[in-house]
Amino acid sequence: MKAALFIPCFVDQFYPEVGKAMVAVLRRVGVEVCFPAEQTCCGQPAFNTGYWDEARTMAKHYCDIFDGYDVVVSPSGSCTAMVRNFYPELLGEVRHASANTFEFSEFLVKKLGVTDVGAKFPAKVTYHDSCHTLRELRLKQEPRTLLRAVKGLELIEMSEAETCCGFGGTFSVKFPTISTAMDDVKCQSIVATGAQYVVSVDSSCLMQIGGWLRRRKLPVQTKHLAEVLAQT
Amino acid sequence: MNTNALQFRRATEAKAFDLDHRAIVVKNTNTYHAAVARGIARFADWETARCRAAAVKWEVMNHLDRYLEEFERNVQAKGGHVHWAETGAEASQIAVSLAKQHGVRKVVKSKSMVTEEIHLNPALEAAGVTVLETDLGEYICQLRGEPPYHIVTPVMHLNRAQIAKTFNEKFGTSLDATAEQLAGIAREKLRAEFLSADMGISGGNFAVADTGMIGLCTNEGNARLTTALPRVHVAIVGIEKLVPKLEDLALFWPLLATRGTGQFLTVYNTLIGGSENFHVILLDNGRTKLLADAEQRDALHCIRCGACLNACPVYKAVGGHSYGTTYQGPIGSMITPHLRGWQDWSHLSYASSLCGNCADICSVHIPIHHHLLHNRRNSVRQHCDPLIQRLMFRVWLWGVQSASLYALGGKMARLAIWLGIAQPLARAWTKRRDLPEPPRQAFRDWWRNNERA
Fold first, then answer.
1. Residue ranges of chain A whose pLDDT lies below 50
2. Which pTM does this prediction carry?
3. Searching chain B, which residue's CA lies closest to the CA of residue A176?
4. How far is Cα B108 from Cα B173, in angstroms, rounded to an integer?
């Protein structure tokens, strides 16, 4: 299978290792990948702040770039939700690229039927459900299924797995005190599991969680699912 | 920033890291969540129940004019009276006139958010009428001079010791009084008031069109005493509370009880109608503005179960009083700009991480977090957004339309973090969180150098 990569601006600029890890995993399971170089941002920051005209311009930009590919894979549940769930409302039509963009774990499990990518990662891990992945894309089991198949990995559920980390895009800087109070609740739940790593499919949540953990030198590292699955 | 937004910011900043507050709210919401899980398990198919409830409400909202007139006819047919109020002030005025007309000196009230919305108590007091809240939670609020913290559980932010302290200050009772003893004290005080009151004022959880009745749900039986003992009963009801048929309550009563408190049914479910001393004030107060908005009309489906407040991580962090509104939490943030103006209340639509838990648990399937997005768009359309933000997104759009400009912008941002220039500028982020370590190379550069060939 051939797939185009959509590397969201956030991952591109701040978490390139996540993109590289996704490329490695996809190739390992036999997917041929390409990276259309004109891609930039899906428009979610503008959309979520109320600037729908600006967001619409970017939605068209995205679809013009990706309409020519069978499937698009992205290492972000949030950006995938923007493209697949919100573009139709924004554009008033369902474009091919919008309907055929998949989140990374969703693509592996639901599109390819792959649950074991042959990874090995001997560590205690807890999984954070990112809100867009859980409640827009309705993906709860897919990332967990992939994690459970990783050799040596012990998955420990935290009590607040489904609770928002408090990032919320511009919310995190418009209301930093509320955002970090939510981060605090989330991180207490993470730390209480005794896990060495907190894993998610959204780097934005991991930036929020990691930002809190590092400031307080708490003994948990953040990792994107792709980075875990890339380990052999 | 307008005064409401500023008040919200100050209140939330004071509350978000108040760990005593957090502990009480977490304890109370955890008890609630456990009860609700048991309650929902009693339904054969909870999902169908909420879809059905949404469908009933959809029908009502799309033919509200007809159902309201049917309700009015049926109340009048049994000798009751219906009054129409376009604004909160008008509704209060009607209640005050009725009090004067009937020579009322004392009013007892059962729990009603709509009377909070229209500021009824101060209006009655200004007319020389004594007003007493009889719901235990509301009674405690009244003793403390506080508005309700939560639309269903007005004193969710207090623990037993704090309530005992309030009672001690007012009545000199023991600071060690148990919950049962405190309830007993309130009961004793309130019984005398019920017997001597001239008028009872209630809200209405439901208004039933085909029988001309209002449905009240309480756990303390105080609504029965409020509506039955005094000479006159005035019910103040928002026009969105209509259900078409009496039998609809077979669905809505358990639905409200289950999501509201985890009970299968509220302890006392009362239907009232059919007396000459029964007055219903039907209140608009901005609801028809929401009704006129086809995109967000379904927000009027809300049955005020309060579940979205308990599910909201923002509500739990900032508490009910921070909002400065009658209706708090996700549904309050969503409807308040419609009811009370975009300029003053748009900030609440932004005070959400859009996590969507509210929509997932909503008894009547209101996509609350999507409506918060619609509100943000509406507030930008009405130029309620800060100019600086508008300019920032103009510049952003200019940048992200070109891959090379975007890449340059990204490089500059990474460089700024690496040089330590970004940290003071990004104070909103960096006050309590670290920024990520900026990588030397973006993914696209890596791809170009390693993969393109």
1. none
2. 0.96
3. B428
4. 23
Note whether A180 contacts B356, CB cutoff 8 Å: no
Residue of A nearest to B393 (CA): A46
The per-residue pLDDT for range B312-331, each reduced to its tens digit, is 999 999 999 999 999 999 99
Query: Best of A131, A175, A220, A227 to disrupt the B interface by mutation (most B CBs within 10 Å)?
Result: A175
Q: What is the spatial distance between Cα B166 and Cα B170, in angstroms, rounded to a whole number? A: 6
- Considering the domain architecture, whether residues A59 and A18 belong to the same structural domain is answered as yes
Mind giving me the DSSP string for B17-33? T-HHHHHHHHHHHHHHH
pLDDT surpassing 70 at residue B452:
no
CATH of the domain at A184: 3.40.50.11810
The count of structural domains within chain A is 2
Contacts of A132 in chain B (CB under 8 A): 356
Q: How many CA atoms lie within 13 A of A27 on its CB side?
A: 10
What does the alpha-carbon distance between residue B319 and residue A93 come to, in Å, rounded to a whole number? 40
User: What's the gap in Å between the CA of A43 and the closest CA on chain B?
Assistant: 9
Whether A218 and A135 map to the same domain: the answer is yes
Q: B113 pLDDT exceeds 90?
A: yes
Query: What pLDDT, in 10s, does the model give residues B192-239?
Result: 999 999 999 999 999 999 999 999 999 999 999 999 999 999 999 999
- What is d(CA B200, CA B133) in angstroms, rounded to the nearest whole number? 10
Which of helix, strand or coil describes residue B218? strand
Q: Pairing between strand B213-218 and B268-272?
A: antiparallel
Per DSSP, the three-state class of A147 is: helix
One domain, residues A135 and A79 = no
Domains in chain B, CATH or no CATH each: 42-285 (3.40.50.10420), 304-381 (no CATH), 391-450 (no CATH)
Chain mean pLDDT for chain B = 96
The reply to whether A98 and A133 lie within a common domain is: no
Say whether both A199 and A162 belong to one domain. yes
Contacting residues of A for B318, CB less than 8 Å apart: 178, 181
Same domain, A14 and A87: yes
Residues of B in contact with A178 (CB under 8 A): 12, 16, 314, 317-318, 351
> Is the Cβ–Cβ distance between A78 and B354 less than 8 Å?
no
Note whether A105 and A142 are same-domain residues. Answer: no
Residue B383 distance to chain A (closest CA, Å)? 11
